[in-house]
Specification:
Layout: H1 12-18, H2 22-37, H3 44-72, H4 76-99, H5 107-135, E1 138-139, H6 142-165, H7 175-197, H8 225-259, H9 266-275, H10 277-288, H11 292-317, H12 331-348, E2 352-353, H13 355-373
Helix pairs in contact: 2-3, 2-8, 3-4, 3-8, 3-10, 4-8, 4-11, 5-9, 5-10, 5-11, 5-12, 5-13, 6-7, 6-11, 6-12, 7-11, 8-9, 10-11, 12-13
Pfam family, one: Na_Ca_ex
Membrane topology: Multi-pass membrane protein
GO molecular function: potassium:proton antiporter activity; sodium:proton antiporter activity
Length: 375
């Protein structure tokens, strides 16, 4: 995608030509359409147009994320997409909770749990499968990946499991418990970022078949700072378009879910799948380039950011929101989370995985989606 003779070397003429590039035009057009259609009942033809722009914005987001990642290097590149998507996702959750409190008491729980299952089973499983198909065995660093997985499991347990067993009925936290969970989530996420980008940065870089760290970058010349900043801005525009257009088409999705006699909570699963599409595509591309570690950074980093940023945000929002905030998982969800945690540990510890491990995680994702549709 990025070549030394491509459009990313910062020359003014080439930068001007990018204004006509689809990766620039589609996100801008998607945001303009979002501004026009936000909060309105849309006819079917308009919904089709919005959905098409949503798909284009997803592909554009992946492109610009790769440009930025190529400039800043790993693991910073993985953090860019994971944090950007999660911040906008959090904003969407809080907006929905404010606009419809009577229907969104469990929205944060459902969204965060869906994000964890999609990232830890869907993105992780797909990455391992593609990596193993490329060279029979997908190789990654178990030290960095194991630390990330331990952080995800801890965050998920503190935020989604403990509320089920507290003395307060609901299942929900008391104000003091919610405050502790929010502070602990932020602290753990901040500590992980410091470890990932500081002293143990090499734990999160791709490794060869002997476990030796290899160059995570392509051999092509990186884009200039100016070109990377342009792509960073366009990445944010594309992500706003992805989340906003997903919200715009959500009434149509809700109508389809109701017509199919599916639980209303399944809408959250569909929205989560749409919002996480950029990370999924970016992880798949990295795995196909034999950069499985980068794919796992994206998967586990996204799960971690989803919990570590969402819980503090809704803790603050709960100050003015009416109604209870339900965070504890039900029995089926607890079983799926426990099975995911055990399976992921067994997958990560060896530092090597084949198509079987990838397939197991994808089956777990399928089980989550099926049970969400048929609880």
């Amino acid at each position: 995608m990025i070549t030394s003779a491509g459009t990313l070397d910062g020359m003014p003429a080439q930068l001007r030509s990018r204004l006509l590039d689809w990766t620039v035009a589609v996100p801008v057009l998607a945001v303009l359409v979002l501004l026009v259609t936000w909060g309105r009942d849309l006819p079917a033809p308009v919904v089709v147009v919005v959905a098409a722009l949503l798909g284009g914005a997803v592909l554009a987001a992946v492109h610009h994320a790769e440009v930025v990642a190529h400039r800043v290097g790993e693991p910073y590149g993985s953090l860019v997409l994971a944090v950007a998507v999660t911040v906008i996702e959090v904003a969407l959750i809080v907006t929905l909770m404010i606009s419809g409190p009577e229907k969104t008491q469990s929205l944060a729980r459902d969204t965060v749990f869906a994000a964890v299952m999609i990232t830890c089973n869907g993105i992780l499983g797909l990455s391992l499968l593609l990596g193993a198909l490329r060279r029979r065995v997908a190789v990654f660093n178990p030290e960095g990946t194991g630390g990330a997985l331990a952080t995800v499991i801890t965050l998920a347990t503190l935020s989604l499991v403990i509320p089920t067993f507290t003395a307060r009925p609901g299942p929900q936290f008391s104000p003091a418990q919610l405050t502790f969970a929010a502070v602990a989530s932020l602290a753990l996420y901040g500590l992980f970022v410091l470890v990932q980008t500081g002293r143990h940065r090499d734990y999160f870089l791709p490794v060869d078949s002997q476990g030796r760290v290899i160059d995570a970058e392509e051999h092509a010349r990186p884009p200039t700072t100016r070109a990377a900043l342009v792509s960073l801005g366009l990445l944010l525009v594309a992500l706003v378009a992805v989340v906003g257009d997903a919200k715009t088409v959500s009434p149509t999705i809700e109508a389809g879910v109701a017509a199919a006699n599916l639980p209303h909570a399944f809408v959250g699963v569909i929205i989560a799948l749409l919002v996480l599409l950029p990370e999924t595509l970016a992880a798949a591309r990295a795995a196909r380039r034999d950069r499985v570690q980068i794919s796992l950074n994206l998967a586990l980093g996204s799960a971690m950011a989803s919990i570590g940023l969402t819980i503090p945000a809704i803790a603050v929002a709960s100050i003015w929101l009416d109604g209870p905030l339900l965070l504890g998982l039900g029995g089926t969800q607890l079983a799926l989370l426990a099975l995911t945690a055990v399976t992921a540990v067994l997958t990560v510890v060896p530092g090597r995985a084949n198509v079987l491990q990838g397939g197991v995680h994808l089956v777990l994702l399928a089980a989550f989606v099926f049970l969400a549709a048929s609880p």
